[in-house]
Amino acid sequence: MKIRPASPRLECTRCSYQEPFTRALATCPKCGGWTEVYYDYEQVAQAWPAALRDRPFDMWRYRELLPLWDDANRVTMGEGGTPLLRATNLEMMMGCSNIFVKDERQGPTGSFKDRQAALSISVMREMGVTEAIVASTGNVAISYSAYSTHAGIKLWAFLTSLVSSEKMREVAIYGTQVVKVTGTYDQTKQVAAEFSRRQGLHIDQGIRSIAARESMKTVAFEIAEQLPLFLGTGSTPWRAPDWYVQSVSGGMGPVGVWKGYQELLGMGLIDRLPRLACIQAEGCAPMVRSFEKGLDEAEPVLHPQTLIITVATGSPGPASTYLARVIREHGGAFAAVSDEETFRALHVMAKLDGISMEPAAAMAFAGLFKLLSEGVIQRDEVVVVNCSGHTFPVEKHLLEEDWARTVEVPTEAPPILEEGLLGSLDNLDRNVQRIAILEDSPSASRLLRRILQAHGDYQIFEAHDGRTGLEMIRRERPDVILLDLMMPEIDGFGVLDALKKEDELKDIPVLVVTAKELTAGEQKRLSGRIEKLLEKGTFTDEDLLEEILEALNTART
Ligand SMILES: *Cc1c(COP(=O)(O)O)cnc(C)c1O
Ligand SMILES: [Zn+2]
User: Fold this and answer.
1) What is the per-residue pLDDT across 401-414, written as a single tens digit (0 to 9) for each?
2) How far is CA 463 from the centre of its chain?
3) Which ligand is nearest to the CA of 358?
4) Confidence class of residue 294 from pLDDT cuts 50, 70 and 90?
5) Are 492 and 486 in contact (CB under 8 A)?
6) What pLDDT, in 10s, does the model give residues 420-467?
7) Exposed e or buried b per residue across 450-482, where buried means at least 16 C-beta atoms within 10 angstroms of its C-beta
């Protein structure tokens, strides 16, 4: 049975604009407000929870409420379905009875960004994106890097140079183009946006992206399904905690989780909403401070003063307004903790309950300790803390010297960059080689594309039959052609014949990549007309790159 999202529609959160959900419009075409996707909840409520019984425990079990059209575009590495752990020793120490840890370290790349990456990269694939840009404080770049390998998407990650070298190296190991920006995260986002404008490349919309927010709902759904295993059910089949605690940067997690619980409440699967506790670092707590001051919009923190770069967003934008309203109307809390308190919480969790995590995750536990001691959270309440991530070390010797490029933001630059200051981007000007891939099988084509993308700055054009391929070559004038022999319409031999007849095309080097055993006659048809014959399944990525570089060199001389 093909499961589709239940007739989703796009609605503006500000005005009355609506349309059927066919495109992921991040902003309302009428008023520029934030959009949300809503589904046919009645239909889903009838199917759930029974329909979920036979599905694997991963984030895709909630398929009907996720904004992807075709399952064929799904990019998955086993994300979601993380354990809910009871922190028994911590409970004992704090005199609490129900502290649970949602162990998001157990995602494929070690953070809860894997949910976001899985859905966002799937949606990018559905949109036909093959090259994309992301600005990140670390974990989004790591996760998007891993997932984009599967989708054959070339990724540019713009990271503030404050990101730990462990995280930077992890991004690079996946073949992502790493660009270090010597500035704050907010400046890094601006540099990335400018690069995207100049290059005409797709840029990830961060919290404005529907896919990203919707992915975070699955954290809420899973917790609601898992809690009854510990606490039993009440009047509804699933159960929401009293508190959901998370360290917050841009606010994607709590915004998505909140929507998830609202959907479950609307469908009658839970009987109440949890309260949100959003924790930030004292040295970068724009949401906490603005809430305390009763401001509607967060005042940006221009110079974050915290060692915990992963969550140091100085200008959180619309999420801040949204979360402040939720917490004002439904209860909940904002809290700021010092780096010292965070590091202490990190030790406590590792030493008491065997859960070692990265500082950005420990910040949530420090927040929990603070809210318990202030009596905001009661000791008998059911609390779920998102243990949002863990850092993997990638050893230094695994990467070549030049694995990152640097964009210098002048130190005297204002915290919010102006256009003219982005001249530093000129360093990134690209000396791109253009490569055409004519390959019948989309998956073989994706592999070739991926190999090239992971190793250099190539612009890649693909066609899956000879006729389209020839048109593409005439239009794009690539530097090298990778040619399959078995193709519909016009096969590889025919393409070669056509190329050799045209003066502008006859000198473009051609590498034939084939799965076919060639007859003597066929060998003869190729001989002298191609650079190299590569047999599928017999060459490695290095062989391929070497041949391409060689072909490019001969073409130039
Ligand atoms: C991204 C991140 C957060 C904060 O996420 P929000 O976007 O603010 O929800 C917290 N912890 C870790 C480990 C993260 O990677
Ligand atoms: Zn609108």
Assistant:
1) 777 888 888 777 66
2) 27
3) 1
4) very high
5) yes
6) 566 667 767 667 889 999 999 988 898 889 888 888 888 999 999 999
7) bbbbbebebbbbbbbbbebbbebbeeeebbbbb
Torsion angle of C-alpha atoms 248, 250, 254, 257, degrees rounded to 10: -140
Instruction: Say if CB 273 and CB 261 are below 8 A apart.
Output: yes
Mean pLDDT score of the chain = 91
In one-letter notation, the amino acid at residue 121 is I
Q: Residue 416 has what pLDDT?
A: 64
State the DSSP H helix or E strand holding residue 68, giving kind and residue range, or none if neither: none
pLDDT digits (tens, 9 = 90+) for 81-128: 999 999 999 998 888 999 999 999 999 999 999 999 999 999 999 999
Domains of the chain: 45-107+213-387 (3.40.50.1100), 113-208+393-428 (3.40.50.1100), 433-556 (3.40.50.2300)
Residue 394 has pLDDT above 90, yes or no: no
State how far the Cα of 126 lies from the Cα of 128, in Å rounded to an integer. 5
Measure 252 CA to ligand 1 centroid, in angstroms: 8
User: Do residues 146 and 174 touch, judged by C-beta distance below 8 A?
Assistant: yes
Provide the pLDDT for residue 14: 85
Which atom number of ligand 1 is nearest to the Cα of residue 358?
Answer: 13
The set of long-range contacts for 20-28, using a CB threshold of 8 Å and a minimum separation of 24, is 21/67, 24/67, 24/123, 24/127, 24/209, 24/210, 24/211, 26/205, 26/208, 26/209, 26/210, 27/208
Higher local confidence (pLDDT), 443 or 230: 230
List the residue whose alpha carbon is closest to atom 2 of ligand 1.
Answer: 311
- Using the mean position of ligand 2's atoms as its centre, give its distance from the Cα of residue 318 in Å: 14
In percent, the amount of the chain with pLDDT more than 90 equals: 70
Distance of CA 431 to the CA centre of its chain: 27
> Is the Cβ–Cβ distance between 140 and 209 less than 8 Å?
no
Beta pairing partners, 512: 483, 533
Residue nearest to atom 10 of ligand 1 (CA): 247
432: enclosing H helix or E strand: none
Task: Please tell me the distance from the alpha carbon of residue 124 to that of residue 103, in angstroms, as a whole number.
Answer: 27
Ordered DSSP codes for 412-467: TS-SSPPGGGGGGGGGG----EEEEEE-S-HHHHHHHHHHHHHHS-EEEEEESSHH
* Distance, CA of 115 to CA of 139 (rounded, Å): 12
Whether ligand 1 lies within 6 angstroms of the CB of 389 is answered as yes
- As a whole number of angstroms, the distance between CA 541 and CA 547 comes to 10
Q: Map residue 254 onto helix, strand or coil.
A: helix
Tokens (6 digits) for 271: 């009987």
Query: In this predicted structure, what is the pLDDT of residue 4?
Result: 53
